[in-house]
Amino acid sequence: MTQAAHLPDRAWLYNPAVAVDRAARAAAEARQAELTKPPGALGRLEALAVDFAGWQGRPVPVIDRIGLAIFAGDHGVAARGVSAFPQSVTAQMIANFAGGGAAVAVLAGRCGADMQIVNLGTVSPTAHVPGVINHDLAPGTADFTQGPAMAEATLVAALSAGAEAVAPEASLFVGGDMGIANTTSAAAIYAALTDRDGAAVVGRGTGVDDTGLAAKQAAVDIGLARHAPAWAGLEAPEATWAVLRCLGGLEIAALVGAYIAAAQRRVPVVVDGFIASVAALAAVRLNPSVADWLVYGHRSAEAGHAQVLTDLNARPLLDLDMRLGEGSGAMMAVPVIQNALALHAGMATFAETGLT
């Protein structure tokens, strides 16, 4: 019996995802073969339609409700000079999301997505901002170079908050992230999960200069050296749990919980950039069955993202040199998916047209 089995408050994380409907996939593949086009002419759009058929359990899938949750949280490691912006920007951007001024809010409006803004815990409170779901788990995480990023109970709460943001009736889920210094936390998590060092995974994030980049690399290496004994020798789920607890962040944990819950509720996920992909890797390490429910929206320009995608055996739909986060790259990919399903449903078959 594993350590996880003794902890009912997080036992849900290890429940297997819903199995993909193979019969629906086969029926969708058969329909693709009958559409008025050469076989394979629509490339990956055909595969997307087949994938969604398997996820939805019907040969002609539809997207009628898109769930979007932007998870926010601050990071104590910001005190190490790892970001080009102060922590107050996190709360300011939360207000910008709520006011509709952020990039992801514009894209959500164009796609008709139901957008939630979920604040797990920031230095500057956002209780006064209309439309924000405030969990207030902590005023951000602790500086992981000095100690664990969060307590175990806080990690449980962050994962659960992520799960709460996934509507079972959604056709698609997108998770975004916001938090000054969160690329540092994500890089540290990624390095720990894959046995790399700071130099191999750290990028410039919000645009730090060479001094800031060196500070980020040093912070990651200090955090790894301090906390490595917490996960040394453990199997993947327990090791991943220790990594998330020690290195943060609150919004990254919420993404992990959301991805696992989505797969358990038969809701496919479009994964965003570097931070979201690190969360996806952690989710798959905790619960390998989640991997079957993930689509990767884009390849971020952030250093390390290409490596994460390779580790996940993932092929992103887009490559636009974006590195904004927020879920913006994933939302850019949503119309591609919508068009793939529209073609699958709307194109005529050879039998309908009399073409041979």
Topology:
Elements (H helix, E strand, L loop, with lengths): L21 H13 L9 H13 L9 E8 L14 H12 L3 H9 L2 E8 L10 E3 L17 H13 L7 E7 L3 H13 L3 H4 L8 H22 L4 H12 L2 H15 L4 E3 L2 H13 L7 E3 L8 H7 L16 H19 L3 H4 L3
Parallel strand pairs: 1-2, 1-4, 2-3, 4-5, 5-6
Molecular structure report:
Strand 5, helix 11 and strand 6 form a beta-alpha-beta unit. Residues 1-8 have low confidence and may be disordered. The protein contains 14 helices and six strands. The protein has a single domain, classed as Nicotinate-nucleotide-dimethylbenzimidazole phosphoribosyltransferase (CobT), large domain (Rossmann fold, 3-Layer(aba) Sandwich). The longest helix is centred in the middle third of the chain and has 22 residues, at 210-231. It is an alpha/beta fold and 356 residues long. A six-stranded parallel β-sheet has the order 3-2-1-4-5-6, with helices on both faces. It has helices at 22-34, 44-56, 88-99, 103-111, 152-164, 182-194, 198-201, 210-231, 236-247, 250-264, 274-286, 305-311, 328-346, 350-353, and strands at 66-73, 114-121, 132-134, 172-178, 269-271, 294-296.
Concise summary:
The chain has helices at residues 22-34, 44-56, 88-99, 103-111, 152-164, 182-194, 198-201, 210-231, 236-247, 250-264, 274-286, 305-311, 328-346, 350-353, and strands at 66-73, 114-121, 132-134, 172-178, 269-271, 294-296.
For the residues shown, what is the average pLDDT? 95
Query: Approximately how much helix is present in the residues?
Result: 40-55%
CATH architecture: 3-Layer(aba) Sandwich
Strand element count: 6
Ends distance: 59 Å
| Spans where pLDDT lies below 50 across 5 or more residues | 1-8
**Spatial strand sequence of the major β-sheet:** 3-2-1-4-5-6
Q: Helix- and strand-based class?
A: alpha/beta
Count of separate DSSP helical elements: 14
Order of helices and strands: HHEHHEEHEHHHHHEHEHHH
Whole-number count of domains = 1
Q: CATH superfamily, please?
A: Nicotinate-nucleotide-dimethylbenzimidazole phosphoribosyltransferase (CobT), large domain
Largest sheet: 6 strands, parallel
User: In CATH's first tier, which class applies?
Assistant: Alpha Beta
Rounded Rg = 20 Å
The name of the CATH topology is Rossmann fold
Strand composition percent = 5-15%
* Overall geometry: globular
Regarding quaternary structure, what we see is single chain
